[in-house]
Each structure stands twice: as structure tokens, then as C-alpha cells.
Automatic annotation (TrEMBL), chain A:
Stretches that traverse the bilayer: none
Name used for this protein in its record: Proteasome subunit beta type-3
A Pfam match: Proteasome
Matching InterPro entries: Ntn_hydrolases_N, Proteasome_sua/b, Proteasome_suB-type
GO cellular component annotations of the record: cytoplasm; proteasome core complex
GO biological process: proteolysis involved in protein catabolic process
UniProtKB/TrEMBL annotation, chain B:
Organism name: Rotaria magnacalcarata
Single GO cellular component term: proteasome core complex
Function field: Component of the proteasome, a multicatalytic proteinase complex which is characterized by its ability to cleave peptides with Arg, Phe, Tyr, Leu, and Glu adjacent to the leaving group at neutral or slightly basic pH. The proteasome has an ATP-dependent proteolytic activity.
Name of the featured protein: Proteasome subunit beta
Pfam families: Proteasome (PF00227)
PANTHER family given in the database record: METALLOPROTEASE TLDD, PROTEASOME SUBUNIT BETA
Lineage of the organism: Eukaryota, Metazoa, Spiralia, Gnathifera, Rotifera
Record text on subunit structure and interactions: Component of the proteasome complex.
Annotated family: Belongs to the peptidase T1B family.
Length: 177, 280
């Protein structure tokens, strides 16, 4: 339905779970602007009012709410949310369509124009309870090889690996065509 | 046989039947007739709807939840210079967003002194340039001389003109060297056929043109021409989603064409970034 507008700019993101770590990776086509600004506004207000940091589930519900508010004139974004509870080590990976459909907490989620290709690779590389390094490898390989089959994704990639004590950001060298 | 003929002896075995069947120059076309609008139904199954071009366009967008997207999108270029003609193409075939192949051969080697490029519908280009190759060969056999680039491109243009409005998609460049020197013609599916010193065809042509127009000079050396052609394709591969993967370069000389190289555009992009001629 909104197929062409969603692939106008292109782009893709992938998220995977490990043992007390989560990774999210995306390509570098174009940044998301309005939605991230509005979400940032709401999360800032929450943190000021509640005087505590957001939990992943709360962020996810905020985002899906934000998207559903525009049910009849939706934002042209797909959403992926990942999170890690630093005390319990519980991992969260959620995805959403552009009008805020809620998903379960899944092992693997992909969104974007190359999502089909990345799903296949992700399912192949995923193993339960991976450590941070294995998780990084699996996520990056799935993303990089998947985007090479999609003309609207690519130009390199960024991978964030979230662990209990740190977040590691790595830029991947990908095909530039 | 001559005696038997004189005496009026008519034998009906295979050999004599073949002799009697008047295989003259004009009749060769009965055994491999030329495709034209009247006999088209014998060779190609016609579609069961009135306006193929319109239907194809609809199907490309969406008809009854079916969406067939043809393999299109490319960057091809060719330019004449002091030492002949340089031809460069990418190798990506896309169907909508999906990259169907990164190894398509978009330069069609018609014969050792004629090249054709492929842009638009892959099937259309490959098929009709093969039919063109056949016509060129028959011309050679009949006339004992190589066909000129002007004639070859005219044959192709006339063939596709018969199918004008039926939804063919073809933007090809015919490159060759004949007794008038280097030849470069652009032929497209609406029957357009023009000659010039430089062309680029395909979705990535806009990017290629910028690079070409910036540094093209007729008096370039061969090495500079190869470099220019390569850079134009690499820049187009970077910016155009539907172009990329491998760059192939051919050089058309008086002795015929020579394949210069077949390398990955991505490796060149990182190389150009190193020597600061490209930014990303």
C-alpha cells in the first residue's frame, strides 16, 4: 500500500539478542528526523517528571503510541527498539510497522527495504545465548550481505552492541554502490 | 546433373529436390524470414490485450495485487576520442528494489568490430542485438565486406520501430569501426537513432555525464580515456541505486574491439577515496 514511499529513501535495520547483550545495526542511507525528535521530546519529559531513566518497554510503548497518533496520516518509518536492563541483564528486541503495531519480545527483528534478505541471513547466523563478540559478527554479516542484494540500502553500516556495562559502536566497511 | 537436366530427367530424391527449390539470394529469407509486423505472430506469441505498453506499465505499478517489475536500471557510456571509441558499462540488474544479479554482461559482442550496449529491458536488448548480429553476418556473406556502423544501427532502429508503442524498453549504443573511422550511434526503443561523440544511457547516466563533461577532450590519450570511462561508471555506481557491482571497459580500435578490464566498482571507490578524488 504505502510501498513506494517506504522504499523512496530506502534503508534497513536489524536487531538481535544475545546473552545479556543486544545488538542493533543499520545501514547509512539517510537518517530519520521528525520521529526521533518527537520521541526525544517525550522521553526527556518523562525522565524529568519521573526523575529516573526509561525502561526499554516504556520507550517501546511510547514510540508505538506516537506512531498510532498519526494512524490516518502516518509517518513513513519502520521502528526497531532494543534494550537491556543493566540490573537483571534482561534483553528486549521489539519491532513495529509505521502505525505502531506492537510485537512480542523476539530474538531477531529486521525492518526496511532489504528486510526479507536480512531475515534469511539472520535466522541462519543466530544462535541462542551468544556473547557480545559472536553477536556482533552475526549481526554485521547478516546486514552487510543482505544489503548487497537491495539497491536501496547500503553505503556502509553502523552496529551498536549494548552490554550491561557499555555500549560499543562500530562502523562497518560496506559496498558503496 | 547438367546432362540429366538437359535431357529433362526429373528425379525426386532429397538431393535433387533441394537443387530444384530455387535457393537464390532472395529466397533465403523464407528459411529464416525477417520479422516484420505481418509475420510477427509466427515467431513471438502476441499478448492477449490491446495496448501492451499501457498494460506493462500498469503491471509494473500494480494490477490485481500482481506487480511484475522488469530488469532495468543501469549505467552505460561510450565516447569517441583520438584513438577510437571507449565503452564502459556497469553490471547490475534490478527488479524493483531487488538486485537480481551483479554480473550481467551489458556489452554485447555483436562481432569482432561491432559492440552493442544494454540498457533498459535486459531481455529486449539481448534478443534484438542478437537478431542484429544475424543480419550483420548475412550482409557480410552477401556483400563480402563488413557492414558499416551506420547501416547496422539503422537495421536495429528499423526493427524496433516496427514494435513502437508495444512496450519494448531498450536504450542501446552501437559502437564500431568501419571505413569511415570510429562510429557511435545511440538507438532507442522509440526508433530514435542519433550519432554523436559521447553518450550515456540508463538510470545512472546523469551521474556519468557530469564526470564525462568535466574532463572529456577529444585529444585524450588512451590511458586517460580508460580512466575517465572508469571514473564515470564508478561515480554513477555510487550514487545510482540501480547501478553498481562490476565495471567493464572495452576499447574499439581500427583492428576491432579489445576488452580492457572487468573489475569491482567497490574496490575503485575505496581506492579513489584514498587519493582524494572521491568523497564518502
Amino acid at each position: 500500500m504505502g510501498d513506494d514511499i517506504m522504499s523512496y529513501n530506502g534503508g534497513v535495520a536489524l536487531a538481535m539478542k544475545g546473552k545479556e547483550c543486544v545488538a542493533i545495526a543499520c545501514d547509512k542511507r539517510y537518517g530519520v528526523q521528525t520521529v526521533s525528535e518527537r520521541l526525544r521530546f517525550r522521553t526527556n519529559l518523562y525522565e524529568l517528571r519521573e526523575q529516573r531513566k526509561l525502561k526499554p518497554l516504556v520507550l517501546y510503548n511510547m514510540l508505538t503510541n506516537l506512531l498510532y497518533e498519526r494512524r490516518f496520516g502516518p509517518y513513513f518509518v519502520y521502528a526497531l527498539v532494543i534494550g537491556l536492563d543493566p540490573k537483571t541483564g534482561e534483553t528486549y528486541v521489539f519491532d513495529s510497522d509505521n502505525i505502531g503495531a506492537i510485537s512480542d519480545n523476539v530474538n531477531l527483528a529486521t525492518v526496511g527495504t532489504a528486510s526479507d534478505y536480512i531475515f534469511g541471513l539472520g535466522e541462519l547466523f543466530f544462535k541462542p545465548n551468544m556473547n557480545a563478540d559472536e553477536l556482533f559478527e552475526a549481526t554485521s554479516q547478516a546486514l552487510l550481505n543482505g544489503v548487497d542484494r537491495d539497491s536501496a540500502s547500503g553505503w556502509g553500516a553502523v552496529v551498536y552492541v549494548v552490554e550491561k556495562d557499555k555500549v560499543t559502536v562500530r562502523e562497518l566497511k560496506g559496498r558503496q554502490d | 546433373m547438367a546432362l540429366a537436366c538437359t535431357l529433362g530427367f526429373k528425379s525426386n530424391d532429397d538431393f535433387n529436390r533441394s537443387l530444384q527449390s530455387e535457393k537464390t539470394d532472395n529466397h533465403i529469407d523464407e528459411f529464416c524470414p525477417k520479422l516484420n509486423i505481418e509475420n510477427i505472430a509466427q515467431f513471438i506469441t502476441l499478448p492477449p490485450y490491446a495496448d501492451p505498453a499501457q498494460y506493462m506499465k500498469m503491471v509494473n505499478d500494480n494490477v490485481d495485487r500482481i506487480r511484475i517489475q522488469f530488469l532495468k536500471g543501469t549505467t552505460t557510456l561510450a565516447f569517441k576520442f583520438r584513438n577510437g571509441v571507449m565503452v564502459a558499462v556497469d553490471s547490475r540488474a534490478t527488479a524493483g528494489g531487488f538486485i537480481a544479479s551483479g554480473e550481467v554482461k551489458k556489452v554485447i559482442e555483436i562481432n569482432p568490430y561491432l559492440l552493442g550496449t544494454m540498457a533498459g529491458g535486459a531481455a529486449d536488448c539481448a534478443f534484438w542485438e542478437r537478431v542484429l548480429a544475424r543480419h550483420c553476418r548475412i550482409y557480410e556473406l552477401r556483400n563480402k565486406e563488413k557492414i558499416s556502423v551506420a547501416a547496422a544501427s539503422k537495421i536495429l532502429a528499423n526493427m524496433v520501430f516496427e514494435y513502437r508503442g508495444m512496450g519494448l524498453s531498450m536504450g542501446t549504443m552501437i559502437v564500431g569501426w568501419d571505413k569511415r573511422g570510429p562510429g557511435l550511434y545511440m538507438v532507442s526503443d522509440d526508433g530514435e537513432r542519433i550519432s554523436d561523440n559521447m553518450f550515456s544511457v540508463g538510470s545512472g547516466s546523469i551521474y556519468a555525464y557530469s564526470i564525462l563533461d568535466a574532463t572529456y577532450k577529444y585529444e585524450m590519450s588512451t590511458a586517460d580515456a580508460i580512466d575517465l570511462a572508469r571514473r564515470a561508471i564508478v561515480h554513477a555506481a555510487h550514487r545510482d541505486a540501480a547501478s553498481g557491482n562490476i565495471v567493464r571497459i572495452y576499447h574499439m580500435k581500427e583492428t576491432g574491439w579489445e576488452k580492457i578490464e572487468e573489475k569491482d566498482t567497490n574496490d575503485y571507490m575505496y581506492q579513489f577515496r584514498e587519493d582524494k578524488t572521491m568523497n564518502f
